[in-house]
Amino acid sequence: MADVSSQLAAGERLRQLRQSRGLSIREVARRCGISHVSISLIERGRHSPSVSSLKSVLDALETTLSAFFSDPLPDSAPVVYRAHELVELADGRSLSYRQVGRNPSRSAMMILHERYAPGADTGESPYRHGCGERRGSEEGGVVVAGRLELTVDEQASVLEPGDAYYFDSRRPHRMRNPFDEECVVVSAVAPPTF
Fold it and tell me: Class for domain 4-70, per CATH?
């Protein structure tokens, strides 16, 4: 953090992270053993901390150096994601799951733009997710184009454009497109357990 602009950026990022955790400067200082004056100077970009000092502050904020410099903060996460910014989670050819945002682990839900080519299948064996969650996990979606065969608990249904589904994703389920045209679905999973 040698130049002034990087000091300001890191200081602002640190302030946003501290505030997103609901902590005062004095509380962070108490937790890490660095004076509140020093932390204030870091946040205002007037002091460049050593790596060990920054690591101590980040430990008090329950994050790592790599996460601090790579993960978007809740206050600074983008509002709009362009099509080319969605993150592909599947093969992208026969089956495409394009995720909104880079890291939904700190989010309340995960949003996907799904595409099923003719013959695409999530697998012959039904799957489930969110089994370790105390409250369970929910999954819902709307078919935008084409048709989708959805099987939940061995009950199969064919959904057409405008049809929707919503279920506890701890239940065994499978999705496939046995039809001749591509199927497009917009879905959400809460919490992000997919």
Answer: mainly alpha
